[in-house]
Amino acid sequence: MRRFKRTLVAVALATAVVGGTAGWASGNAQRPVTGPPPGSTAWRADGSLGRPLPDPATASPARVARFFAGLTPRERQRLLHRHPLVVGNLDGVPVALRYEANSLAVRAEGDARYERLAAPGRQILAFDPRGRGQVAEVYGDLAGARHVSVVIPGSDIDAGTFDRTKDRYGTPAGMAASLRAATGGRTAVIAWAGYTTPVGVGLDAATGDLAEAGAGRLARFTQGLVAAGIAKPVLFCHSYGSVVCGLAAHEVSASDIVVFGSPGMRARSVVDLHTRARVWAAKNASDWISRVPNVEFAGLGHGADPAGAAFGARRVPAAEARGHTGYFTPGTDSLRAFAAIAEGRATQVRTTWRQTTWPRTAQARATQTTATLAPASSGGTR
Q1: Residue 205: is it exposed, middle or buried by C-beta count within 10 angstroms (0-12/13-18/19+)?
Q2: What is the pLDDT of residues 92-145, one digit of tens each?
Q3: Helix axes 209-227, 61-69, angle to 10 degrees
Q4: Helix or strand or coil: residue 279?
Q5: What sign results for the dihedral spanned by CA atoms 311, 368, 218, 262?
């Protein structure tokens, strides 16, 4: 009887999420962009080098990196000019070559929405004009940085809105710039709007379909960074982006996964994420996401609260943050902690577990403390 009552409660709460009575609003259904980069058919047919090119649909980022390492500068330039959208989006391609390819691709697109992306000095690591558009931009010296972070956003973000000036710290570009500034320029940060996000917070935001599609893209993206010789990144996952990170956790190449303003990670505990990355969580009391039920039933909702003690994540202080998009606001305790994690300065007593079984029946009881921050390094700006 008790179990039946819990099921009824879960159904009611999940219905509230979709219906909007928990503070969620209607959204427009989105079709995720999946598959290899645009232009892949012409790429596969290209025999100009006298040997097959790596198939964007099947070649691993490591395989792509080895292929480009074996090319001459002239051969690289030939492929870049013949196939800018493939070279610019193919994980494993050298970073500088991707910047150059995407600059060409953005200008060739001729779309006023993307003109600003071709401005001098912008380092566009990915650009896919399909759907609402996807983009990744680098802040800092990615190839030379000792510490790298990737910001993964939630709803209403695409190539046209990822760097909007309104609600600056609710955008991946604003979060990335703020994080790099908080580290004194000692890190490189990527604003990654590389998946199809929900529009609004309706059914798409209450289910995991878009997150499932985004998880594969995020995993491959991080694997491509490592294959290209980039430091293993820290992932900062906001709102619905934390659902993406939860589903990708077992595949991503990352040292840490930090979620904030999270509706859940589609897991009951850190153990269920099947990751070796350290997992951190932040949520402030004024964040409206706290009113969203932490349930998962019949595909609706995203499960346990990562900021709850039972989940087992390392807790990030966020008492000074305000609202759902205030975690990267300069001067807040959350941003100071994020900067320490990004630089590898955050330490904490290791989470301990009682009575765990692998993989899906973990009953986790965590000893949880907040992050302890080591002094900032006085080293260079790399």
Answers
A1: buried
A2: 999 999 999 999 999 999 898 898 998 999 999 999 999 999 999 999 999 999
A3: 30
A4: strand
A5: positive
b/e code 175-202 from CB counts within 10 Å (16+ = b): bbbbbbbbbeebbbbbbbbbbbbbbbbb
Q: Is 245:152 a contact under the CB 8 Å cutoff?
A: yes
Helix (H, G, I), strand (E, B) or coil at 315: strand
Q: For residues 381 and 185, is the Cβ–Cβ distance under 8 A?
A: yes
At position 330, the amino acid (one-letter code) is P
Q: Which residues pair with 127 in a beta bridge?
A: 135
Map tokens 């700006």 to a residue: 381
Question: For the whole model, what pTM was predicted?
Answer: 0.87
Alpha carbons 65 and 161: distance in angstroms, whole number: 31
3-class SS at 192?
strand
Closest CA to 84 of 49, 52, 128: 128
Q: Which residue is it, tokens 């509706």? A: 263
User: Is 294 within 8 Å of 264 (Cβ atoms)?
Assistant: yes
Check: CB of residue 237 under 8 Å from CB of residue 260: yes
Give the tokens for residue 79: 């492929």
Rounded to 10°, the helix 240-248/209-227 angle is 60
Helices 333-342 and 172-182: crossing angle, nearest 10°?
Answer: 80
Contact 152, 244 (CB under 8 A): yes
Burial call 1-31: b when 16+ CB within 10 Å, e when fewer: eeeeeeeeebeebbbbbbeeebebeebeebe
Residues 54-76 pLDDT 10s? 999 999 999 999 999 999 999 99
Buried b (16+ CB within 10 A) or exposed e, 283-322: bbeebebbebbbbbbeebbbbbbbbbeebbbbbbbbeebe
d(CA 110, CA 316): 43
